[in-house]
Amino acid sequence: MQTSDALNMAMDSGLDLVEISSNGTTPIVKIMDFGKYKYEQKKRASEARKNQKNVGIKEVWVKPFIEENDLNIKMKKVFEFLDEGNKVKIAVMTRGNKRVLARGKDAVPELFAHIVQIIGDRGTLESKSKPDERTKSIIIAPAK
Fold first, then answer.
1. Is the pLDDT of residue 99 over 60?
2. Chain-centroid distance, C-alpha 134
3. Disulfide engineering: 139 pairs with which of 75, 94, 100, 126, CB 3.0-4.6 Å?
């Protein structure tokens, strides 16, 4: 069948002649309602966007020498964020006088190790901050 015959058939039926592929020796065409096809594609894409889950990063700040009860309260909030499906960035404030900073060099890694131990299997450690950054932080992703 010639392309002109297909075009006449499409016009007679009130549809469009859409070229699918032009790579071969003969072009491949399809008779269809192109407006309806575009509408269905748009609707499918909209539905896919609606069903996708948005993962955000929530942030919780702690101090290097936080008391156990205060840490438990912060961890409750971390667990809420993880249960909602969000990632959690736990950042440690290392500001203060020189004495606190000198003592804090060992305190921050110990605190992070303790936090990871508390979280256990409810989340996984995704990344740590670089050692030379002023603000130390870890990112915890929800367990799958």
1. no
2. 26
3. 126
The whole-angstrom distance between residue 107's C-alpha and the CA centroid of its chain comes to 31
Q: How far apart are CA 124 and CA 144, in angstroms?
A: 9
Please, what CATH class does the domain formed by 57-142 belong to? alpha beta
Structure token pair of residue 19:
């070229």
Residue 104 contacts residue 62 (beta carbons within 8 Å)? no
**Span 3-51 CATH architecture:** Roll (3.10)
> DSSP secondary structure string, the chain?
--HHHHHHHHHHHT-EEEEEE-SSSS-EEEEE-HHHHHHHHHHHHHHHHHHSPPP-EEEEEE-TT--HHHHHHHHHHHHHHHHTT-EEEEEE---S-HHHHHHHHHHHHHHHHHHHHHHGGGEEEEEE--TT-SSEEEEEEEP-
Considering only 22-31, 47-56, 95-104, 113-122, which range has the smallest mean pLDDT? 95-104
Give the β-pairing of 136-142 and 87-92.
antiparallel
Rounded to whole angstroms, the Cα distance separating 112 from 40 reads 50
